[in-house]
């Protein structure tokens, strides 16, 4: 009886470990919102939704910006932040995105690749090695864009 129980126990432990660590390939979402935040930020930026984009920016960064530019309207500030975020990005939209998260403590980097759209609406395939790099910071238990690391 004991000899059949031990292998079954080992099998259960193995399956639990495999489920917990994954089987390789693309990184699975961490459950903390890093991947969805990065992809939503790109979509908001590409769609010109400056206010939605600004809502994803770290509150500490926005406080600093508001101290430096106290009279700037939210729509204008959002446009400035989007322009800085998209600086050097030659795409205007996303058709299909894949991503991978590298997280350490309250900092994370999300690498996003897939099929993007160029200024003419043509599809451009971005390989994983050429992925866009989006930095995040966790404040008050929630992930935000870290625009200090652009």
CATH class: Alpha Beta
- Counting helices, strands and paired strands, the structural category is alpha+beta
- Low-confidence runs (pLDDT<50, min 5 residues)? 1-31
Question: Can you tell me the CATH topology?
Answer: Nuclear Transport Factor 2, Chain: A
Q: What integer is the average pLDDT?
A: 80
Oligomer: single chain
The total domain count is 1
Report the biggest beta sheet as strand number plus sense, adding barrel if it closes. Answer: 5 strands, antiparallel
Distance between the termini: 61 Å
- Percentage of residues in helical conformation: 40-55%
Q: Please tell me what the overall shape is.
A: globular
Share in β-strands = 25-35%
Q: What is the architecture at the second tier of CATH? A: Roll
Number of helices: 5
Q: How many extended strands?
A: 5
What Rg is obtained from the alpha carbons, in whole angstroms?
20 Å
Q: Which series of helices and strands comes N to C?
A: HHHHHEEEEE
Walk me through the structure.
The chain has five helices and five strands; from the N terminus they run αααααβββββ. It has one domain: Nuclear Transport Factor 2, Chain: A. The longest helix has 20 residues. The N and C termini lie far apart (61 Å). The N terminus is likely disordered. Strands 1, 2, 3, 4 and 5 form a five-stranded antiparallel beta sheet that branches. The protein is globular. With 150 residues, the protein is of the alpha+beta class. 41% of the residues lie in helices and 26% in strands.
């Amino acid at each position: 009886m004991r000899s059949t129980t031990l292998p079954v126990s080992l099998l259960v432990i193995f399956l639990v470990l495999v489920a917990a660590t994954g089987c390789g390939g693309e990184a699975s979402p961490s459950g903390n919102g890093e991947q969805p935040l990065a992809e939503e930020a790109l979509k908001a930026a590409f769609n010109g939704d400056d206010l939605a984009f600004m809502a994803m920016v770290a509150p500490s960064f926005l406080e600093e910006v508001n101290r430096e530019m106290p009279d700037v309207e939210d729509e204008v500030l959002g446009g400035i932040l989007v322009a800085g975020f998209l600086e050097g990005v030659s795409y205007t939209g996303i058709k299909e995105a894949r991503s991978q998260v590298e997280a350490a403590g309250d900092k994370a980097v999300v690498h996003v690749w897939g099929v993007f759209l160029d200024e003419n609406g043509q599809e451009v395939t971005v390989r994983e090695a050429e992925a866009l790099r989006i930095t995040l910071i966790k404040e008050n238990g929630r992930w935000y864009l870290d625009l200090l690391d652009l």
